[in-house]
Each structure stands twice: as structure tokens, then as C-alpha cells.
Write a structure and sequence with these properties.
about 60% helix; mainly alpha
């Protein structure tokens, strides 16, 4: 997190840790405030001088530059000398503050008010309540007399009053009239000319059974408006008074099912807030429970839960209660299917906290807490390949079975899944694990883990080319997710259908690419950067390699769009596999059909897809050799191969090995070819990458055949080709 700016009160700034920055004197703050008022636009030096001084002194411009230099040092203390400023920039005739919208409290406040208008009532009330808490006093408090701040101060003050009234109106919609009364009472006392405030207060009092008080409020409003403004109440107030006198039915509208649910939620939350003492340890445990549910609710929820989780863990540790900390860490048992962490730094912090808590737990007992901590370590160590992650998974599973706790066992099995990638070719093992997870979860109504079990089986059966069974698991996931409002599960079934389409042997490349791009849109805002970064271009690359034989996959889109798959290499059944190409493999077999000819590889490209340069993200080391070959940079490709590490132990292990092996064959790198062949051999009967459920490079056996041929092992190559043909 970078520098944040506050103007809803005294003008201030905070560093990434939330500590105030030293902004020096009032002139420095005035410069900063004036630039924030400009909202990222350039303010000429001459205008700044006129705004800062009523009668500018002779050295005003020099003084202004001194203020700016001091502000830059405060805002960007780590900026190297003579490098351009990133926040307070010089541009044209003046200066501008290039802060992001989320970094200025006033700008965030405006965005929150706008966003709240489109949210359900309960969410809108929470958003408005949070936004109103950002106010620390009058906007630009120390510049009340500055002409340049007057209009912005007035605008923000009006926006705040409007937000107070909208918050109260939302509480009334939720049936929380009693909760709205205190704030509305203070609101009209401070701003007696706000007729909407009087109306809402009277309505809130009426809905709490205080009809006489509601009428008294309306009479008080009439008196104050007449005395202070010399006007009568408007039509809304007059109409409300009449309706209250007649006890009109519409003043207490009947709630629909959704509104009733929102009301119950809001009432329970308000009651909890009133009755549970601030700072009580129960609040921490309740918070983690809410975060767990938030993580599976949809776009934004997962990311928000992740951000607040580490704060909850830190707060628990600060209390010095190991048992409480164990409960806080272990309660966040959010099912996880993707094997690359969304935030490796945070994951490492959680693992460290779990290890400290394990060591601090009193000896004897607390076995369930220990199991949850161990499962957490296994989950958060995903993709790291550490021995500790694997041992923690085994220990958690053993403890959970001994305790006969189904929910704990499901959590532990998720950890075992994350640690089940110690080598290639383990799809059948994961299929068994997924089957147990589905069975346990279905028997004990563990819905999110039942979804996870089906997703694991979907991946495993896709790896084994058993698409009939994989389809059934995809349908089960969609049905459960729809019934229980778990929208993130649909991201994975949508990606699976791209794999299914590519391996069906019927769809042209253009159709498969369109499906891939559509699936990629579901990653936007899903809060899963570990899945999102680099995956869409990698999936497109693998599609084009899969379809490559007829022509280079990197020709123009209009040259490729009508390409259709043709001859198959295996049986077209639920257990088999069909090659989506129009040419037989021939003696070379071709990894997934693409031909390797000298230094050029048909069906491969470096940093370009569809004419746009792309970011391969974390997969760049394993794509880079092919990228260089596609640019006819053979020597650099050979050098890159010598440096390429083993792929991470995760869902894309086989796919990344295949990309490296393909490049090794092209440049004649025997050492790397041997290494890849050994790494891939246990997965000979699987489809490369399909076990991820998001991409495919076809039969691993085809890749092994090319590697063996390049190594001069003709007989072994033929055996691999025969294995591929059996599906």
C-alpha cells in the first residue's frame, strides 16, 4: 500500500503502514491540499502563488519550489536522487498530484456513495456507514477561509449530509428504524433546514411505535423552518404528517423474502455490535467466520477476506493467547482448488504464525486445533514443494481421522490435495482423494467441500481423458454452486469447457479460442491473482500448439479461423482421446501434433498472441525458450534451456515440462531432453495440462515420443506412440 491522503478533517497523509507523514508547516499542507482539490489536474505555479498568499512576497516562486521539494521528500522518502517524482509531479507550467482514486479519502468517499446506490440495502447500509466513519472533522478543516477551498468544502459537506440521510433511509428499508433515530436526531439538530432529515426522523419514530413523538418532531420542524428561514414545510413533510395522523398503511410496508432476510441480517449485526463488548475476543473469532463466508461469495469477496484475514491473525497473536490464535487461524478453512498462491507473501506469514502457535499450544490435548493449524500450513505451502508442507498434510489427515471429525477431515484432505504434486502423473491418486472428499462432504452437508471434491475429480478425470465422468462432475459443481450461491466455482467449470472443446475433436480453433477468451473474462475481479496472472495467454498458446499441424498457430486470425480438427489418434469414448488435428502424426509423432523443423517450431510464438504483446507472468521461464525459437534466436533459446528450472510442483507441472521438452528437441539439447523425459514419464497415460482443468497440450505420450526420438531411442519412441494411440 502506498501513500494515502486525508482531507475529510485536517489535511494529512499516511505512509503504507498507516503512520502519519511529517508534512511540515501550514504552507506545505496548503500546497498539498490545493493539488488535491485540483483532482490530478495541473495547477500552474502562478495560480498556486496567488492561492497561497494574499500579497505574494518577492521570493514566492522560490518558496513554493522549496515547499514542493519538502513534500516530495516526505511522500517518497525512498526515491533515489535525480529520479522523477511519481506522486507530486512537475508537468507543463505547474504541479499535479497523481494520487489514485483510492488514495484520497474524499475521492473514496464519493466513490462509496455512488457505489452504494446500486447495492442491496444491507450492503448499501454497511458501505455508507463505513464511508461516513472516514470523516474526522470538516473537510479541509484548516483552510475554511481559503477561497480556493470554499467550493470543494461546500460540495463535500453537502455530499456528507446526503450520505447521512441515505444511510438512515436504508436502515428504514431494512426495518431498523430504532437504529436510525439517534443519528437522525443529531442530524436535524445540527442542520435544521434539512427537510429530508426531519421527514426520515418522524418516519423512524412512527415505525418504532412512537406516533406522538413523530408528530412532535414534525411540529418542531414547522416552527424551526418558520423562525429561521421564514418558510412553511414542503409537501413531503405536510403529507407525512397527514399520513401519520391517519396511520396510513403504506408507512409500514410489508417486506418481501429478500428484504426480510436483509432485515434479519442487519438486526442481528446491530444487536451483536451493541451487546458484544468492543475488544472482546469473541469478536475476533466471529470476524474470521464472516471472512470465511465472504471468501466464497463472489467477485471482490475473496480478495477482501484475504486482506482482513492477516489482520485478524496478527490481532490474535498480540493478545498472547495461543488457543485463541489457533482458533482464529484454523477457522479460515476456505476450500482451495488452485495450486498457486494468490499472495505468497501473506501465505508465508500465515504459515509462520501457524508454526509459532503450534509451538505455543500447551502440551497434551488441543488435537483439533493442532490439526487445523497443520492443515493451514499444508494449504498455504501450496506450490512450494517443501517437505514441511507434505508432512503437515499427513499429520493433519491422521489427526482428523483419529478425531472422527468430518469437517476437520475435509479441511485436512484439502491440504493433502495441495501437497499431492511431488511428481508428475498422480491424477489417479487425486481422483481417489476427490472421491473421498465428495463422499464425506455429501454425508455431512459440507457444501463448499463437496464442490471442491467434484472440482478435484473433474481435473483428475480430464487428465485421464475420461471426459464423460469429468462432464458429470462439472454439472454437479454448477448445480451446487447455483443452489448455494457460490459463483466462483463457475470460473473453473467455464475453463474446463475450454479443455473439453479442444479435446472433443470437433471444434475449429477459432471456436476454442473464443471460448478461452470468454473464460478469461471471468477472472477479472474474481480476486484470484494466483490463477489469473499469465494464465489466459498460456492457455491460448497451448490451444494453438494443440491445433498446430495444419499450419503455424501464429498466422493471422483470418487465416486460422476455419481450421478444424480431423484424424483421431485414439478411441472417441468417455475413456479415450481424440486428436484435434487434420494430419496424422507420422513417424515424428509431433508433441500434440505440432511439427519441429530446424530452429522454427510451427505452432509456437514468443511474446505475441493475436498481434498483442502479452505477459506470461510466472510461466515465463518455461515459455521463454519457445519464444526465442519462434524469433529464430536459437543460441539464446539454447542458453535459456540451460537455465530453466524444474516446473513448480502444481497443477501445471506436466504442461510446463512439455513446453520445455518441445524446445529441447528443437535445439538438440540432449541433457534437457533427458531431464524432461524422466520428469514426464510417470504421466505417460495422461493428457498434458488437462489435469489443471484450464488448458491442454494433448497426450503426454506424444511428447515423450518426440523426446525419445530426439535421444535416438527409436524403440522407446514407438512404444510411446503406441501408448498415445491407445488413449
Amino acid at each position: 500500500m502506498g501513500v494515502a491522503f486525508g482531507v475529510l478533517g485536517a489535511v494529512t497523509a499516511w505512509d503504507g503502514a498507516g503512520d502519519p507523514l511529517a508534512l511540515k508547516g501550514p504552507r506545505h499542507r496548503a500546497v498539498l491540499a490545493r493539488l488535491i482539490v485540483a483532482r490530478r489536474r495541473v495547477v500552474p505555479v502562478s495560480r498556486l502563488v496567488d492561492d497561497l498568499w494574499d500579497d505574494p512576497p518577492q521570493g514566492a516562486v522560490g518558496a513554493l519550489r522549496t515547499f514542493v521539494a519538502a513534500l516530495r521528500r516526505a511522500l517518497e522518502p525512498a526515491r533515489p536522487p535525480r529520479t522523477p517524482a511519481r506522486l507530486l509531479v512537475t508537468e507543463g507550467p505547474g504541479y499535479a498530484l497523481r494520487a489514485d482514486t483510492g488514495d484520497v479519502d474524499a475521492w473514496r468517499f464519493e466513490r462509496a456513495i455512488t457505489t452504494a446506490a446500486s447495492l442491496p440495502p444491507a450492503d448499501a447500509a454497511a458501505r455508507l456507514r463505513e464511508a461516513l466513519r472516514w470523516w474526522r472533522g470538516p473537510a479541509y478543516a484548516e483552510f475554511a477561509e481559503a477561497g480556493w477551498a470554499r467550493a470543494e468544502r461546500s460540495r463535500l459537506a453537502e455530499l456528507r449530509l446526503h450520505a447521512v440521510e441515505r444511510h438512515a433511509a436504508t436502515l428504514l428499508t431494512l426495518g431498523l428504524a430504532a437504529e436510525a433515530v439517534p443519528d437522525l436526531d443529531a442530524h436535524v439538530a445540527e442542520h435544521p433546514w434539512r427537510e429530508e432529515g426531519w421527514r426520515l426522523l418522524a418516519l423512524a419514530l412512527y415505525r418504532t411505535g412512537r406516533q406522538a413523538d413523530a408528530l412532535a418532531v414534525l411540529r418542531r420542524a414547522r416552527t424551526l423552518l418558520a423562525d429561521q428561514l421564514g418558510v412553511d414545510p414542503g409537501p413531503d413533510l405536510r403529507r407525512l404528517e397527514t399520513d401519520i395522523l391517519h396511520q396510513a398503511d403504506h408507512l409500514t410496508p410489508a417486506a418481501g423474502p429478500d428484504e426480510t432476510a436483509n432485515r434479519v441480517w442487519a438486526q442481528a449485526a446491530a444487536l451483536y455490535d451493541r451487546t458484544v463488548t468492543p475488544g472482546a475476543r469473541a469478536r475476533l473469532e466471529s470476524t474470521v467466520g464472516l471472512l470465511r463466508n465472504l471468501a466464497v461469495t463472489g467477485p471482490g469477496g475473496l480478495q477482501a477476506a484475504r486482506e482482513h484475514r492477516i489482520a485478524a491473525v496478527t490481532a490474535a497473536e498480540e493478545l498472547g493467547d495461543a488457543e485463541l490464535t489457533a482458533r482464529v487461524i484454523g477457522a479460515y478453512d476456505v476450500p482451495a482448488i488452485w495450486t498457486r498462491s494468490d499472495d505468497p507473501h501473506q501465505a508465508a506469514r500465515v504459515v509462520a504464525a501457524a508454526e509459532r502457535t503450534l509451538a505455543a499450544l500447551p502440551a497434551g490435548g488441543h488435537q483439533a486445533a493442532r490439526a487445523r493449524l497443520l492443515a493451514t500450513i499444508a494449504l498455504e505451502s501450496r506450490g512450494t514443494g517443501t517437505a514441511r508442507g507434505r508432512s503437515a498434510a499427513r499429520q493433519a489427515q491422521t489427526l482428523a481421522r483419529d478425531l472422527n471429525d468430518p469437517a476437520l477431515l475435509a479441511f485436512a484432505l484439502n491440504g493433502v490435495f495441495m501437497q499431492s504434486f511431488d511428481r508428475a502423473g498422480l491424477a489417479r491418486r487425486r481422483d481417489d482423494l476427490g472421491a473421498e472428499l465428495v463422499s464425506v462432504s455429501a454425508r455431512h452437508d459440507l457444501i463448499t467441500y463437496e464442490v471442491l471434491g467434484h472440482l478435484i475429480r473433474l481435473q483428475a478425470r480430464a487428465a485421464l481423458a475420461d471426459f464423460a465422468t469429468a462432464d458429470a462432475h462439472a454439472a454437479a459443481v454448477d448445480a451446487l454452486a447455483g443452489r448455494h450461491e457460490l459463483p466462483l466455482a463457475g470460473v473453473f467449470t467455464r475453463w474446463y469447457r475450454v479443455v473439453r472443446l479442444a479435446e472433443s475433436g470437433r471444434a475449429p480453433l477459432s471456436e476454442a479460442e473464443a471460448a478461452c477468451r470468454e473464460a478469461a473474462t471471468m477472472l477479472d475481479g474474481a480476486g484470484m491473482p494466483g490463477l489469473e496472472r499469465g494464465l489466459p495467454p498460456l492457455a491460448l498458446l497451448c490451444l494453438r500448439l494443440r491445433y498446430a499441424p495444419r499450419t503455424s498457430a501464429w498466422t493471422r486470425d483470418d487465416e486460422r479461423r476455419d481450421r478444424r480438427p480431423g484424424a483421431r489418434t485414439g478411441p472417441r469414448s468417455g475413456q479415450g482421446h481424440r486428436q484435434p488435428t487434420g494430419e496424422p502424426h507420422g513417424e515424428r509423432c509431433g508433441p500434440c501434433g505440432a511439427r519441429v523443423e530446424g530452429a522454427r517450431i510451427e505452432g509456437a510464438s514468443g511474446g505475441w498472441i493475436g498481434g498483442e504483446q502479452v505477459d506470461w507472468g510466472p510461466y515465463e521461464p518455461w515459455v521463454r525458450p519457445l519464444a526465442l525459437l519462434s524469433q529464430e534466436r536459437r543460441s539464446q533459446a539454447a542458453a535459456a534451456l540451460r537455465e530453466v528450472p524444474d516446473p513448480p510442483r502444481d497443477l501445471l507441472l506436466e504442461a510446463l515440462w512439455c513446453l520445455v521438452g518441445r524446445a529441447a528437441v528443437a535445439v538438440g539439447d540432449r541433457e534437457t531432453a533427458e531431464r524432461v523425459h524422466a520428469g514426464l514419464l510417470p504421466a505417460e497415460g495422461e493428457l498434458a495440462g488437462a489435469g489443471s482443468g484450464v488448458l491442454t497440450l494433448g497426450p503426454v505420450a506424444c511428447h515423450l515420443a518426440d523426446l525419445a526420438a530426439a535421444l535416438g531411442r527409436t524403440r522407446q519412441s514407438a512404444q510411446h506412440r503406441a501408448r498415445a494411440s491407445r488413449g
